[in-house]
Amino acid sequence: MMRDNAGLIVAARREAFASQQRHAPVDYRQANKTQSQKGLSTRFLFECAQKLEMKPLTSATAAILFHRFFREISDTEYDPYMIACSCLYLAGKIKEDKVRKRDIINVAHNTINRGAQPLDPCDEYWAMWDSIVQAELFIARVLKFDMTIVHPHKYMLHYMKSLQDLFGAKEWHSMPVARTAASFLQDFHHSPKVLDYKPAHIAVCCLALAFQVYGIEVPLSDEAEDSVQWYTVFCNDLTREKHWEIVESIMEAYAIESAGNEK
Description:
Elements: H1 6-17, H2 19-22, H3 28-34, H4 40-51, H5 56-72, H6 80-94, H7 101-112, H8 123-142, H9 152-167, H10 169-174, H11 177-188, H12 199-214, H13 240-262
Helix pairs in contact: 1-12, 4-5, 4-6, 4-7, 5-6, 6-7, 6-8, 7-8, 9-12, 11-12, 11-13, 12-13
């Protein structure tokens, strides 16, 4: 397990300050021919969500549905990009952040075919329309119609409020911890490992990683016993070993992304 690993901190700094470079345009058609689709389909999902101006919680919901679906179904059987489109449409309904199927179709088509004009009603357009409708019902059936999702976001908001009170509002708002932790949380949804951990644990680990990135110590930490971490106030069942396991999983999501860009 990593502890105060300099490589981890350097990697985290790189990801915290270079998000725009990380999200440079991808030729999904060419990438599909030359490399595994691992990581690309979720990147496609989030790129489309951003273009559709979906709320962060809606895109996170779509990602959770996508990862749950492919936990149940072999990813070689179905087009992951079309499943991603259906998850976006379904998530919009769940979070009442609805978008029209027409907009999803045109955004998806333009994202895969860079520079393409919006599709007029034609065979390709109606084929995508039917695929989204059919995949929506199929996803729901595979997930046994269980669309309940407990997001880490709500825990993070509560934790941030408590930490703000501890640091003081002025000092808290002067630090980039909240923004960086939120970025780590959203980016972790690119990885299917986001399903493996408790939402509360993910939230606190994103905050802990942000504190580590900037070398910020939580007030009164030095007053606690060596065996007690500041985050046990929020999650008394989060062990130090599990904490570092989750942190490593968060950073692995960036490693997958970097490997995809190098190919």
